[in-house]
Amino acid sequence: MNTQNDILGLGALGLYVHAPFCTSTCDFCAFYQEKPRKNAVKTFLDGLFDEWNLVLPAPPVDTVFLGGGTPGALSERDLERLCSFVREAAGECFDEWSVELAPSEVTPAKLRVLVEAGVNRVSLGIQSFQPRLLEALGRRHPPERARQAFDWMREAGFDNLNLDLIFCVPGQSLEDWRLDLDTAVSWEPDHLSTYCLIHEEKAALFAQVERGEIGPDPEREERFFRFTWDFLKEAGFDQYEVANFARSGKRCKHNWNVWRMNEWIGLGPSAASQRAGERWANAASLDRWSAALKEGRLEREEVVTLGALELFEDYLLFGLRLNDGIDLGEATIRCPQVDVNPVRELLFQLAEEGLIEGCDDQFRVTDLGRLVVDRLGSEVADRVRVAA
Ligand code: SF4
Questions:
Q1: Cα of 201 to ligand 1 centre, how many Å?
Q2: What is the pLDDT of residues 20-64, one digit of tens each?
Q3: What is the pTM of this model?
Q4: Ligand 1 centroid vs 151 CA: distance in angstroms?
Q5: Which of 232, 258, 284 is the last residue of a domain?
Q6: 250 backbone dihedrals φ, ψ, rounded to 5°
Q7: What's the Cα-to-Cα distance from 1 to each of 4, 6, 53, 219, rounded to whole Å?
Q8: Is residue 102 in contact with ligand 1, taking CB distance under 6 Å?
Q9: 326 with 178, same domain?
């Protein structure tokens, strides 16, 4: 069978491991996670080895991303076991190994475990520097803990650090957001991810949405988006995706691989994978995930077969979010069966509305287009179906 990378003419492979544990649940979060009880952690760590054996054979891994939940919720000893599993699975040749951590879990001892294992990038979930806004998000760390965690990470030798921030929090003014961005930039991180608060149905904050107390406000969001893009550009960060900004050479390679439609293997409950012409998610339940593994099978959900058309569509949808944009010439090489002309016509129409810029085969969204990128995505997807 052709693998997706054969179809796309690419070779990179990512490994994502979902550690589904958090000591407390943030009010905006809809990720699958549970409390790191001893038995649950053991079930998870044992299951990873079983899952990997079912996934094999796999080519060498280029990038690793250890997320969740938050892997830092594990004890030092369990984190060591998790890292040694990753070392065994990923081999020696990976280029980047990222780990997500929450400030309250960072300790010098855990950082030593990560450094010794070969982790070379850490993403710290700051969200805000202001106690009132952290409270509004149900985020349980004092701001000074975040600073201490960051300093410890630098002292441990990490030279590739990301900070995650959230904007459009209930009660947050644009001035509050300016202060958060200012503080983040003054710490001199290598990368910043800035997310607009999304009201997920499964998140605790959704109860306030249902009561009509909070909710999406496109005009307010536009002000925050535009402010963010201008502020971080002025601060010397290179925006390479709607929500992601990097210092030179510090783009997240793992995410980049995903957005460029390479393959990745996801391990752990709820982890998604894209491999061998299919995309799927593991069962979002530690018990179901582990029970299936004990029977020698993977509990896969939402399985999608990726033909040339689906790959072409995803290439375009991700490309709309990337500042490097879309290259229809490259898309033609990757998916020669697909007629790109209907899409090219649409992109020219969108260019007349100031939403897209470019010519010939190279297109990228403008700031105006980036504000309505989801709408552009559905228009492009409709046009792809016309091309089918
Ligand atoms: S946002 Fe992160 S730390 Fe908070 S509950 Fe979700 S996964 Fe856990």
A1: 15
A2: 999 999 999 999 999 999 999 999 999 999 999 999 888 889 999
A3: 0.93
A4: 22
A5: 258
A6: -115, 25
A7: 9, 9, 20, 48
A8: yes
A9: no
